[in-house]
Amino acid sequence: MAGALQSVATVPELRKRITFTLFMLAVYRAGVQIPTTGINGEALAAFFEKNAGTLFGMFNMFSGGALENFSIFALGIMPYISASIIFQLLTVVVPHLEALKKEGEAGRRKITQYTRYATVGLSIIQSTMISIGLEGMAAPVGNEMIVIDPGWAFRLMTILTLTSGTAFLMWLGEQVTERGIGNGISLIIFAGIVARLPAAIVNTFKMFSTGEMTLIFLPILLVMMVGVIGIIIFFETAQRRIPIQYAKRMVGRQMYGGQRSHLPLKINISGVIPPIFASSIMMFPATIGGFIQVDWIQRASSLLAWGSPLHTLLFVGMIVFFCFFYTAVTFNPVDVSENLKKNGGFIPGVRPGKRTAEFIDKVITRLTVIGAIYVSLVCVLPTILIDQLNVPFYFGGTALLIVVGVAIDTLSQIESHSISRNYDGFLKTGRIKGRR
């Protein structure tokens, strides 16, 4: 890694891209500290401390604490991610969008434009709901109202501010992707999650000072965290490579083809989408229970509380379901088989066409089973550590998958930029496995 950092310092364009990326992320973190007008900050902080395990807590995590501060970036980049996911799903069922996707770069630009419009629309809807909801909320102690002066003036100002903040973050992420290094949207979420690490460290030291955690347990905790990160890196970079053979063909008097290649299939094709969807759905009962004080709703909310056996069972079931669903939506074995057939490629021992599609589908199904088990274990582990061992385990579940995945992808892009300019500094320490 030291040699890699030295090689980065010697490539001017790469150094410029990294500097631009860090500057944009610094702008984002500065905006998180700018509050929206009309909010009682102390009452809002007390409310979030009580509702840390609800849907608000998850949104606050992805926004890097911006929702807790109710800053201009309170919505974060989640509306853009939601819009992107919606259009990825729509490209499968809407013929017009499917045709645009197959048009190449021009079609992708058109879909991106639609995604931007949808992001603004979702931001307006979410900011409206948040502004109206905050007007009826009060701090759990003292019943001090969160909104200082409720009314349409506050609502319109909140809608304008939060929607503009999300639009700016969307632009900022696109600028990082184009002029910086790595995926800008992913890096914004990454920065928001990592920014809360100091608070987790301080909380850990507080537990040592109060006697809630012994010093002997600290090395065990560190080993467990390193082990979990290592497992995630292994599974995120692991591939099942299906061998591909290309038939020889005569062009004029020259013989072409006969080459060997492979079809790389990741174990976790769906990425972090399944835990995000599952977390959103499972946090709705706790969120509703915080607003509606009805006996049966309160009982149902307590049964589905974060960390309960029923919650864990349903959470794992939803992760498995979304792993298979999203993989089926994003990866079509029939299209892969047809593309191989058109290019003269085939899998040794498997007939082209239908048999090849069935073989690839069988391999994908087995990989998705392994990937679903892996994602479920990573997402359930923080529950066990926090509830059973009383550990302030910060990086867990979806947050840990995002942090490790973004770090791997960013390092891979740095490596690609270095190699493309005939610089072999990264080659001395080896390429990142599975990211070629």
Account of the protein in words:
By secondary structure, the chain is mostly helical. The protein folds into 2 domains: 12-196, Preprotein translocase SecY subunit (Orthogonal Bundle), CATH 1.10.3370.10; 209-393, SecY subunit domain (Preprotein translocase SecY subunit). It is built from 19 helices and 5 strands. The strands form 2 sheets. A 3-stranded antiparallel beta sheet has the order 4-1-5, sandwiched between helices. The longest helix has 36 residues, at 354-389. Mean pLDDT is 78; it is low at 423-430.
Would you kindly provide a brief summary of this structure?
Helix content is 68%, strand content 5%. It contains 19 helices and 5 strands.
Write the layout of secondary structure elements.
Blueprint: H1 2-9, H2 12-32, H3 41-50, H4 55-62, H5 66-69, H6 78-93, H7 95-101, H8 105-135, H9 152-179, H10 184-194, H11 197-210, H12 217-237, E1 239-246, E2 249-251, E3 254-256, E4 260-266, H13 273-282, H14 284-291, H15 295-303, H16 309-330, H17 333-342, E5 345-346, H18 354-389, H19 397-420
Helix pairs in contact: 2-9, 2-10, 6-7, 6-8, 7-8, 8-9, 9-10, 10-19, 12-19, 13-16, 14-15, 16-18, 17-18, 18-19
